[in-house]
Amino acid sequence: DVKVTQSSRYLVKRTGEKVFLECVQDMDHENMFWYRQDPGLGLRLIYFSYDVKMKEKGDIPEGYSVSREKKERFSLILESASTNQTSMYLCASSLSKAGNTIYFGEGSWLTVV
Amino acid sequence: SQQGEEDPQALSIQEGENATMNCSYKTSINNLQWYRQNSGRGLVHLILIRSNEREKHSGRLRVTLDTSKKSSSLLITASRAADTASYFCATFPYSGAGSYQLTFGKGTKLSVIP
Questions:
Q1: Chain B residue nearest residue A96, CA to CA
Q2: Rounded distance between C-alpha atoms, residue A62 and residue A80, angstroms
Q3: Residue-wise pLDDT tens digits, B31-44
Q4: Is B42 in contact with A43 (Cβ distance < 8 A)?
């Protein structure tokens, strides 16, 4: 079974802090994604990557950056956390470009105070 | 951007009844997928239906796709309390050049009452 592991399940950070959310997948998938999920807004794509060192902006990239130095690892970075970034963050991966099944991690609940 | 829209937003049924959720979308698709999310957890893939398929089954799940109406439905038969979750449809565009992303709807929240 595909496993997508998000390093932190719950985090509380202060406004202005730099925050790293780490994600690792074990199935050699080319594509990796970061979504945020908010009540009433559904899932919104922040960034995705289709190869090592490659990244593409999703629908809401402002305030975020990403890093993909190794194929299995995709990190989401909040350079200066703000309260409006309090949310559930979901990492996901998929094989190839062809609209295949996406496999999700369990999510990271981030609260910025 | 949201492409799929689920209907209804919330559904409450008794255990043993069937649950039907609908999804409408706007542009041509390569495939449509349904996912399930238990409260506070990640999404889990349920079923994928390609644009040239009309119906697909997986256990108690039945998915239909009508590309002329740009709509899909998910039927869960003989529902159980454990089916309580949010259900999302996601679409992959037909013309996927440069695009690797599924677009998710906002979900239907299903409650199955024991």
A1: B100
A2: 11
A3: 999 999 999 999 99
A4: no
Beta bridge partners of A92: A33, A104
Closest partner residue to A42 among B40, B48, B104, by Cβ? Answer: B104
DSSP per-residue letters across B3-20: --EEE-SEEEEETTS-EE
Chain-centroid distance, C-alpha A91:
4
Return the amino acid letter for A57: K
Are A65 and A79 in contact, with CB atoms under 8 Å apart? Answer: yes
Question: pLDDT at position B3, please?
Answer: 64
Count CA within 13 A, CB hemisphere, residue A102. Answer: 34
Chain A residue whose CA is closest to B33: A101
Q: Please list the residues that pair with B24 across neighbouring strands.
A: B5, B71
Q: Outline where DSSP puts E strands in chain A.
A: 4-6, 10-13, 19-21, 23-25, 31-38, 42-49, 56-57, 65-70, 73-78, 87-94, 103-104, 108-112
For chain A, 113 residues long, the average pLDDT of each consecutive 10-residue run is: 89 97 94 93 91 91 96 97 98 81 94 98
As given in the structure block, the two tokens for residue A92 are 């996901």
Q: Does A39 touch chain B (CB under 8 A)?
A: no
Is B42 in contact with A94 (Cβ distance < 8 A)?
no
